[in-house]
Amino acid sequence: MMSRRLSRLAAAALALPLIAAGGHAIAEEADAPAPGAAGIGDPYWPLDGNGGIDVSSYRIANTYDLRRMALRGRTSLTLRATADLTSFNLDFLLRVSKVRVDGAPADFDQTRHELTITPAVALAAGTSHTVKVTYAGRPNSKRYAGEENWLADRREVVTMNEPHMAPWWFPANDHPSDKATFDVQTTVAKGREVIGNGKLVGKKERKRTTTWRWRAAEPMAPYLAFFAAGDFTIRQGRNNGLPWINAVSQRLPASAHDAALRLMRKTPRVTRRLSRDLGPYPFSVTGGLTTGLPVYFALENQTRPTYPAVGPNAVSLVVHEIAHQWFGDDVAVARWRDIWLNEGAATFMEWRYAEQYGGQSAARTLQSVYDSIGAGADFWKLRIADPGADDIFDHAVYDRGGMTLQALRNRIGDEKFWLLIRTWLETKAGGNATSEEFEALAAQVSGQDLTSFFTAWLRTPTKPAKTADNGLA
């Protein structure tokens, strides 16, 4: 994410043993099934995600009425029980009318953003199941965690936000540590366009409606799934064999619309250039979407970041969001506290891109930022390895994260730094990671004790000393 404002911690409850008169435990054959936890265990948002389940795929079929800003539909999830469950939860805000588990009706209850599902038969650990949820409502009327995230008016909608977006439009195990594939079909009034993640695999026109079907073949975190509906100009092609699909809102004034098309058209080139440092692009398609809604941030939706209208020269913004395809999308955070791994790396890659294509060196950018901010500034007071839920998008997470990586580059040298980055992305590809894992790999690859370096940059609420050990001299 640009310019604004979790390892799964499953806890299965063990049944208490029966106690005989002599005080000896009478062994039971197996632990009794129990309800799944209401949250996955991330301390920043304890009710995000859900214990006892692992979702492998979402198949979403929604109808969205732009004029009424109303959504109805059905989501089919394929999931595996990771514990013996009498019930389990999904994160969802709209009113549910029906739930079926493996084809059989299931009881359900909704409290705030928790959808608790009780199947007719308990789920055994290790077994796979299909869950179908039918629902309807007005997403723009819903709030969760103090957020009103539905971005829409009667002409356009785009589901872009972080850390929460999924529960406004489909039931999800809403945490980055549970990635899944997505197949999303959205029905709108005939003549309107729908854009989503991945590739367009179907478009069916009827008398009054059109259904657009987008499929994301590579697993992704639920908050990265999106759709946009409205009037869009769509362009597509190939660059060095990689397909790209761009879209720009037609509600923008002509000059802004054309400028946005020119900016989006730079995406394939940016993707190719970043791959020279980071290794093969991790997905099967790239692209971007510019909305006409008054939003003031961009978001790294997997395969197709979303942007506000910013003009044709905001290449650094495209670099940031495309860099996220590696840092944040392919290698996702294990906990929200690890967000500097995403935002710091994307910021650093902006500096690196400028260094390679006509701007000042990343080392000079680090020095400039360091020198320009006094030791007493709030910028240095945030512990960016654990910034707290209210500050995960503080500008210090972005800039100090980028500074940390360039300072590390200074400290261990170019050869070992880029070996570290490539090794990190290769070994963690498709998964989740923590700051501590990155720090350990950095020490291993460099052959240096980097404890004091990372303490100074990530965990100390003061300006790092200008020393060689801190990569500053």
UniProtKB/TrEMBL annotation:
Its cofactor is Zn(2+). Residues 1-27 form the signal peptide. Residues 313-457 form the Peptidase M1 membrane alanine aminopeptidase domain. CDD domains: M1_APN_like. InterPro entries: Aminopeptidase_N-like_N, Aminopeptidase_N-like_N_sf, Peptidase_M1, Peptidase_M1_aminopeptidases, Peptidase_M1_dom, Peptidase_M4/M1_CTD_sf. It catalyses: Release of an N-terminal amino acid, Xaa-|-Yaa- from a peptide, amide or arylamide. Xaa is preferably Ala, but may be most amino acids including Pro (slow action). When a terminal hydrophobic residue is followed by a prolyl residue, the two may be released as an intact Xaa-Pro dipeptide. GO terms for biological process: proteolysis. It comes from the Bacteria. Gene3D superfamilies: Neutral Protease Domain 2, tricorn interacting facor f3 domain. Keywords: Hydrolase, Metal-binding, Metalloprotease, Protease, Signal, Zinc. Residues 58-224 form the Aminopeptidase N-like N-terminal domain. Transmembrane segments: none annotated. Its EC number is 3.4.11.2. One of its GO terms (molecular function) is zinc ion binding. Belongs to the peptidase M1 family. PANTHER family: PROTEASE M1 ZINC METALLOPROTEASE (PTHR11533). This is Aminopeptidase N. It comes from Nocardioides piscis.
